[in-house]
Design goal:
Elements lengths: L5 H9 L5 E3 L2 E3 L9 H15 L8 E3 L6 E3 L8 H18 L6 H21 L3 H15 L3 E4 L22 E6 L2 E12 L6 E4 L14 E6 L5 E5 L6 H5 L2 H4 L10 E12 L3 E4 L5 H38 L5 H26 L2 E2 L5 E2 L2 H26 L2 H4 L3 H5 L4 H6 L9 H14 L2 H9 L4 H11 L2 H13 L13 H8 L2
Parallel strand pairs: 1-10, 5-8
Antiparallel strand pairs: 1-2, 3-4, 6-7, 7-11, 8-9, 9-12, 10-11, 13-14
Helix pairs in contact: 1-2, 3-8, 3-9, 4-5, 4-8, 8-9, 8-10, 8-14, 9-10, 10-14, 10-15, 10-16
The structure holds iron/sulfur cluster and fe (iii) ion (FE).
């Protein structure tokens, strides 16, 4: 058995001696900290579902390297079927947790490392691919959670890595030794980083010839010497410390993934964990591979999250007695339409995938970028409709304790109750879910996760074949193909010229 049980996952994290902070507080065991526990629980749910026979083949896969049954979250995409199954798995997980389940960044980073290490070896005779395969077998056999670490702090955005006032604004190699390298810098917004076993560090941007020290892809255990993790705040996170379950909205699984800044303060990385080192000409493609896979994901995970949000909104409509109102119904239809549009794109991008030189499969890049572009709008639009239908109470509810208070409990209950016999806390809980599932943290993640909207638009223009489209238009409008021999011509101006003869 190569897959961890949920408990084994949690115990394996507890056994690590990490250097982690929540706020300014040093935390010995992040797993057990109330700010982090819900995110751990979400990932534990993946481990749990992978054990369930009904999800065999969906959350599990057969390793193409060992033939062993593995968690799909450590699998290389070896067919379009694998790509489609991944999107279906993401939607299922989104439905099961109502939030981000964190493992996709590492999964896509592993796939990018697998693909690019092969291409570098083919061009340069290096042995990165073999190294990566050995690392991957270790990850698969131990069912490790890998956090993809891509986003550099970036300093002045108008300057490239080597032009920064502070050269550490992008992760770089500061020392080369016969047995490895020493890296310095930081990666931001690392989803699930604080409850992962390892970081897979990838460059975050294309590089210039003089920036070879910034061209580094490597694996670093989360408890390696010199690694510090600093947990980021989220909307309403102090509620976690109050222990107010209802006010959290999704107290079991949290809202969004739990992002962490990870600092690499002169961390040694041995050769066997280095998968790109100085080959700047492959960096752009590596970033591109990662981003393209990851952009398609959002149609799956946000689709599943939207399913839960639509359900919570429909529940509120029911409690309010307006579930049969045609205007409300039409707004719910719009939420469904926006969600399915994103999901359809993700399935389409996956089904239209193609083989890379290494034999693994890439999603259709135009569709993948379109999915993510839609997400930057549709998640907001779905949230807006949830607010519209649910009403203002999701933003003005008193805290949970008020409902139990001796003095005021009777008032807040009386004036939040819709029907005699209702449980007022049911309405409060669904309202709180909507509040938190549409919070700033959730929205900004949908906007910038897997790349900001303009990044997708640049790719879309590049892939659009605009000249080809112009040629199509010319052929239709000006062409003289005359299938039936009726002496008709495409361009009206030409007809006029003919009559003047
Ligand atoms: Fe995965 Fe979605 Fe979370 Fe990104 S936002 S890590 S794709 S669940
Ligand atoms: Fe994300």
């Amino acid at each position: 058995m190569t897959m961890k049980t949920p408990l084994e996952y949690v115990e394996s994290l507890r056994a690590m001696k990490v250097n982690a902070y929540v706020g300014a507080e040093k935390v010995e065991s992040p797993v057990d900290h109330p700010a982090i526990a819900p995110h751990v629980n979400t990932v534990a749910k993946i481990y749990e579902m992978a054990q369930d026979p009904q999800y065999k083949g969906l959350i599990t896969a057969e390793s193409h390297l060992t033939g062993r049954e593995i968690n799909r979250w450590t699998h290389i995409f070896m067919s379009t079927d694998d790509l489609v199954r991944k999107i279906k798995m993401l939607r299922l997980m989104g439905q099961a947790t109502g939030t981000c389940f964190q493992r996709c960044v590492g999964l896509d980073a592993m796939n990018a490392s697998y693909a690019i290490s092969y291409e570098i070896d083919q061009a340069k005779g290096t042995d990165y691919h073999q190294r990566f395969k050995e690392y991957l077998i270790y990850v698969q056999d131990n069912d490790l959670m890998i956090a993809g670490a891509m986003t550099d702090p970036k300093g002045n955005r108008a300057k490239s890595p080597s032009q920064q006032d502070d050269p550490d604004q992008y992760v770089r190699v500061v020392e080369r030794r016969p047995d490895g390298v020493v890296i310095r810098g930081a990666k931001l917004h690392n989803t699930g980083g604080i409850n992962s076993h390892e970081f897979l560090v990838l460059p975050g941007t294309g590089l210039k010839p003089e920036e070879a020290d910034y061209a580094i892809a490597c694996a670093v255990p989360a408890d390696a010497e010199g690694v510090t993790m600093i947990f980021g705040r989220q909307s309403n996170d102090d509620r976690k410390l109050q222990g107010n379950c209802v006010d959290l909205g999704n107290s079991r699984f949290g809202i969004v993934g739990g992002e962490v800044m990870v600092v690499f303060d002169d961390v040694f990385v041995p050769n066997e964990r280095i998968f790109l080192n100085g080959e700047i000409e492959f960096v752009g493609q590596m970033v591109n591979y990662f981003a393209t896979w990851h952009r398609a994901n959002y149609g799956g995970c946000k689709g599943g999250n939207a399913d839960v949000l639509i359900g919570a909104t429909a529940k509120i409509a029911q409690i309010h007695g307006v579930e049969r109102n045609t205007i409300v119904k039409d707004k719910v239809i719009e939420m469904i339409h926006l969600t399915e549009t994103c999901y359809a794109g993700a399935i389409g991008a996956s089904a239209s995938g193609y083989a890379l030189p290494c034999g693994s499969y890439m999603v259709d890049p135009m569709m993948a970028n379109t999915v993510k572009q839609n997400i930057t709008r549709n998640v907001y639009a779905v949230g807006r409709l949830a607010h519209d239908i649910a009403g203002g109470f999701v933003a003005t509810l008193p805290e949970e304790a008020a409902f139990e208070d001796e003095e005021i409990g009777k008032w807040v209950t009386k004036y939040h109750l819709c029907n005699e016999g209702d449980d007022v806390m049911e309405r409060v809980h669904y309202g709180r879910y909507i509040e938190n599932a549409t919070s700033v943290t959730t929205m900004v993640e949908a906007m910038h996760g897997a790349g900001s909207p303009q990044a997708q638009r640049i790719v879309m223009l590049g892939l659009s074949n605009l000249k080809g489209k112009m040629a199509m238009a010319e052929e239709v409008i000006e062409g003289d193909s005359d299938v039936l021999g009726l002496k008709i011509r495409g361009r009206v101006v030409s007809d006029k010229a003919d009559t003047n003869d």
